[in-house]
Amino acid sequence: MKRLLIACCLGLSMASTGWSAESLPVPATTVDAASTLHYFNRPVFTFRSALSGVSAADRTQRAAARLREQLGGQGPHRVSQKPDAMGVLVQINGATTFVVTANDVDVLQQETLEASAQRAAQALDLVIAESREARDWQAMVRALGWSALATALALALAWVLRHGHAALARRLVTLSEWHSRKLQWGGIELLQRERAATVVRKLLGGVHSLVLLLLVYEWLSFVLARFPFTRAWGETLNSYLLNLLGLIGSAVVGAVPGLFTAVVIFYLARAATGMLGRFFDRIQQGEHSLAWLDADVAVPTRRIATAVVWLFALAMAYPYLPGAQTEAFKGLSVLVGLMISLGASNLVGQAASGLILTYGRVFRRGEYVRIADQEGTVTDVGMFATRIRTGLGEEVTISNTTILGSTTKNYSRAVQGAGYVLDTTVTIGYDTPWRQVHAMLEEAATRTEGVLTTPAPQVFQTALSDWYPVYRLVCQAVPSEPRPRALLLSALHANIQDVFNTYGVQIMSPQYIADPQAPKQVPPDQWYPAPAPHPHRP
What pTM was estimated for this model as a whole? Predict the structure, then answer.
């Protein structure tokens, strides 16, 4: 009634003043937060501005209440549009439901006022039809029938999938076990049957679960689309799946050229590493020799060259990999690089130390060395650590940075031919002729099994202390001797004791408190007691 009185007053005023409808001032509108009118879970129209002081959210609530009131009454519920000074009036049975103003137009979609009103009218037609269908009991019965039929069909398909999956799994597991039994090399199975069967079962289980999930997804979308109130949800599920499949398909098709380029780059890298491998194999076998490359460093140099080739290939192929230009891929690359840079400082130091030890030729595999307080045969010189086997049969792993920071004694370098140095020290009093001590130590060395006679063992007087001279026996041991150095050194010490006991010489380091009554010296006629040979006597 108020609106009718206002309209009459406006009409009388225009008649008295001579104004026309076109000269009416348009009510002021302001941009507001967008609010969407929904009915039967379908979007009808989005209000993006306030009108005459009424916010977009209030306009949505008023339009929803007006729509429910209009659809609750009788009539054909025919939708129409009527231009107005405020915009376009969207009406049902000639009664205005809501107004589409110029500020409600989505400028990002480059729509016009008329196109927005037309789209709103079409959405209103659709919800009116679904509202009418929801009140039709025959349509609801048909929807229930279709839903029951779809449910029965889905259960039948699930039963078929379950039994088909079980039968196919048994068949494929049998085939995998049969083929894995044939994959042998030198009587050794390259692929264990239990692992092959487990992999086949897990793959089939994953495929079965995926197909079952798609079946439930399609059943749910079909059932929801049968009823007017949930039809929008069912259509959304279908469109989402189709859009996802289309997106995946287009991504796969778009990634094929780049993926092909990456495959070509990796194939060339594989060919290059194969050529390098054959070259380094010939170096290692002694077929070729270079001044800067020998057989000892052929293996680590091959590894370094292979790593450089593959890193270069990865850098070249990176832009062509699927998803390489996405923000997620870039973020993951940055995260991995940050983790490596933070945690690889010690790793890089170890690798650099390994390169220094390898190319500096500090020691080689098979040589006998002493590193800090560890002594043994080098079994492996790695990039990050070196392993040695001690005389007690223990394998000790030492980091390369520790080796560079300590003193290394190599007993295998100062020898003639193959083998390693074996040495020991004794202190005998001055009253024992030094020639006799030399002869006894050399005889003990020749008695020891595993000590070479050529080159002959040698004895050196390394010091003349206040109370005794220091004798050092140096000999060369056989590297192929199965006994470790500790056992060989123990046998040498035992033979030294036997020889000294045989000739009646005490192994002792005399310590003086007072001067002796007789001087501790050896007269010249006693310089050559047995077994020392006399230089002038046959």
Answer: 0.42
